[in-house]
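User: Earlier you gave me the apo prediction for this protein. Now I'd like the version with calcium ion bound, so I can compare the two side by side. Same sequence as before, with the ligand SMILES added.
Assistant: Got it. Here's the input I'm using:
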Amino acid sequence: MNLLKRTLVTLFTGLGVVAGASATPILIDFEDVAVATGTTVSPGIMFESGGFRFSTSLAGTAFESSGLALSNDYSVGPPPSDLYPHSGSTYLGGLSFARVGVFGVSYLNTVTMESVDGLSFSLKSLDAAETFIEVTGGLLRNITFEGTTVSGNEISTMIELDGVLDGAGPGEDFEPLSFGADWSNLASLSIYSRDFFNFWHIDNIRLNTGEPISGTVASSGTFSLLILGLMLLRRKIPAH
Ligand SMILES: [Ca+2]
Ligand SMILES: [Ca+2]
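And here is the structure of the complex with calcium ion:
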């Protein structure tokens, strides 16, 4: 194979790595995590579901086992003393913040999700719900979502929940939330609430995975190959 042919093969192979990437739809419904019906468990500071890793920013604090909760039709008592949402399945809960005593130091709990395989992703939709616990006196009313793109840009939205929560059994506790095209090419998604001291809940996260995040490096590598190829070709062409 002569130099020109070798160079072209190398270039097209490199470009093919980038052009071959395609979006893959994913549903994260948390059913791949074993949680017995009627219970809630702490997965610790992180867990994996649907090829994604979920972690809490409370890791390293005295509250690190409180940041994440996986519940499956869990209910402490009959309404209105305790109302956990119902989705007929397992869902993820995130504590809004942890605090030392009633007026002590507070730690905002941010739950971050990212691809285990280092893939970028586009968030499409998810189901979200609140919790009401009468003994603590309040209803968590909003959730904030913050996406960080592969290129480092950030996108954020705070969503007011509908306040509809009737606890165990079929109901309308969870509401569907949709995300537009701006929520594409994400490297990570962070979820938190600065609202009332309580849990927010999500289930059925729909997204499309894309290129490996290191694909941006691959792209750079492809351009390096292009420059190298042009240099080699230039050396091959006799000077006038
Ligand atoms: Ca589920
Ligand atoms: Ca609701």
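For your comparison, keep in mind: Residues 215-236 form the longest helix (22 residues).
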